Amino acid sequence: MTENIIIDIKDASKSYGDRAAVRGLSLSVAKGEFFGFLGPNGAGKTTTIRMLTGILSPDAGSITVAGKLVSDKLHRAGKIGVLSESKGLYEWMTGKEFLSFFAGLYGIAEADEAAEKLLAEVGLKDRADSLVGSYSRGMKQRLKLARALVNEPDILFLDEPTLGLDPQGQDSIQKLLKRLNEKGVTVFYSSHLLHEVSRLCTRMAVIDKGVLVAEGTLDDLRRRTHKDDLRDIFLSLTGPDAEPE
Amino acid sequence: MNKLIWKKDITAEIYTWKSALWLLLTAIIYSVTCYLLLTNKELSLLDQTEMLWLLAKIIIGASLLVAIIDASSILTVEFEQETMEDLLISPLSVKDLIIGKFLTVMTVWALMYAVAVPYVLVSSAGSGLGPAFLAYIALYGTLMVGGFTLFVLGLSFLYRSFKNTLTTSLVFYLAVGIPALFSATLKANPFGSIISVANPLDAVFSSLDNILVDYHTALTANATYLASVAGFVVVAVVFLAVSVKVFDRHGIVKE
Fold first, then answer.
1. pLDDT attached to residue A36
2. Residue pLDDT, tens place only, A101-134
3. Of A82, A89, A105, the CB nearest to B91
């Protein structure tokens, strides 16, 4: 697997003042994997994604994405797509204008055409000329996903992509992500919902209080915790009595 | 890249009617000023050059106020609406972002200047000072609006909040503006004269007095004042550079 590794985190730590958000995190993701990154709220998932995307620098350790050190900032021009936890939308723009703007930032020549194609891909073609402010939460989330896809990324970082969505909205995003993964896109999927991650991901890591507590397939986690129920597995790994791996 | 940011922000200014309202407001201020200068019993007794000087002060003062308010929101809105993260993840550099934002505020200033032109032309008719007046307003206005915009953008990187940035910017504007309105007697004492030399707004007003009242229209005759304003712009550039360094060190998440 070593030669196939596309995301490599080695002993990364990040603190905000006196509060450690991530402590000595090490994990790797292979090319083409659908990797789940699980943890309760405040576990350090968003900080990890922000370090992976170069928005935050780790205080210690190193992070390599697609063969480039994140700290050299070169990877930003590379093929990564990010759906961040932030709201991140210009509500006064239409969906098409929003995507065209970002396509322009990525230097895509036919920005309008690219925007139309993406809107169709995420099922927003009919609302292309509506203001983003008039979109429902699910539509906004799909638009954010389209924005993450604007540069046709090889690696997708998704931070709670289905948060606050109804089952239909969750399903449509998950199906789209599955399709992308089948086309070879590596997906780094952060969530606190184990059932969602178990449905989609081939392998997963669990983080709690900034520390990696488990890594492997769902079966590995079952074996480790001696539990079958997804909720019990999660609670046993991240609950008050959980022991780090 | 910075062109895309400029285009986005100018479109936002149009969509939200922000710029249009500012332009309407400045046009009303200029109209009222000119009306009073021409019809008010006492004001209409002023010499034409003094009228022009008063109008110049109002044009520069109003433009600075609008530029400060506009610049306070133009960058902080990216933090407050949480769009900054997506911008920084893209290949857009902080330098391009700053240039795009800066150009947007300067475009608004250019529009405000265009609104002022007819008022200046009518007020200066027959004095022969119209072209010099317009040229110096353009020069000083651009330098002062530019300097203040850079300073406000620097504050925006530090505060990341519209309210805090605007409040601090307005306090700074008042701190610079009030001494510029001191009487000649106050400026005559040593402390007053130091403030007068170091204060860029005071330098602008003194230079306009030199041009409009004393007819010293050559650039060389106003070199000292220009140096003071240029010095302010340099200080604003340095302040912005330091703010960006601080922002880079902390990252998107403020500790």
1. 94
2. 999 999 998 999 999 999 998 989 999 999 999 9
3. A105
pLDDT at position A126, please? Answer: 95
Interface contact A107-B91, CB threshold 8 A: yes
Domain stop point among A152, A176, A199? A152
**Chain B residues within an 8 Å CB radius of A106:** 90-91
Q: A166 and A101: one domain? A: no
Q: Under an 8 A CB cutoff, do A90 and B15 touch?
A: no
For residue range A29-72, list pLDDT tens digits in order. 999 999 999 988 889 999 999 999 888 889 999 999 988 888 65
Range of the domain at A123: 90-152
Cα atoms found within 13 Å of the Cα of residue A83, Cβ hemisphere only: 26
Q: What is the pLDDT of residues A164-210, one digit of tens each?
A: 788 888 888 899 999 999 999 999 999 888 888 888 999 999 999 99
Q: How many CB atoms lie within 10 A of CB A136?
A: 12
How sure is the predictor about A240, in pLDDT bands with cuts at 50, 70 and 90?
low
- Half-sphere CA count of B30, side-chain side, radius 13 A: 24
The answer to whether residues A178 and A158 belong to one domain is yes
User: Would A244 be classed as within a structural domain?
Assistant: no
* Tally of structural domains, chain A: 2
Is the pLDDT higher at B252 or at A158?
A: A158
B253–A16: do the CB atoms touch at under 8 Å?
A: yes
Place of tokens 């204008």: A97
Residue B1 Cα, gap to closest chain A Cα (Å): 6
Strands A5-16 and A19-30: antiparallel
Q: Which range in A67-81, B117-131, B161-175 is most confidently predicted, on average pLDDT?
A: B161-175
A163 in a domain, yes or no? yes
Q: How far apart are CA A162 and CA A160, in angstroms?
A: 6
CB A13 within 8 A of CB A61: yes
User: In terms of Cα–Cα distance, which of B149, B133, B184, B138 is closest to B69?
Assistant: B149
Percent of chain A predicted with pLDDT > 70: 93
Asked if residue B163 has pLDDT above 90, the reply is yes
Query: pLDDT tens digit string along B79-99?
Result: 999 999 899 888 899 999 999
